[in-house]
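Researcher: For the annotation table, I need structure tokens for Probable [NiFe]-hydrogenase-type-3 Eha complex membrane subunit A. Please keep the output clean. Sequence:
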Amino acid sequence: MILLINYAVALVSSIVVGAILGMKISFDMDSFEGSVLFPTPFVALGLTALIGYLITLDLISSVIIGIFASVFSKFANKIFPGVTDVN
């Protein structure tokens, strides 16, 4: 039960921080830009599972994972250059 709460906290914090950072709410299937709905929650859930497997999770680390996931999704195009939308 505690693990599910940690997943929920990471998910909610990633969505909230993504919205605060000004990411788009809906995602475009023809674009590689990150949005609040994709890939931000999936990055947060994956990182939560990875950190939960490697070390012990608590609420603070779940919030930090959510913040990191939203910042990573926001700047993914700058971290991994070369993926451009060719139209």
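Researcher: And a one-line annotation?
Model: Residues 1-22+34-76 form one domain.
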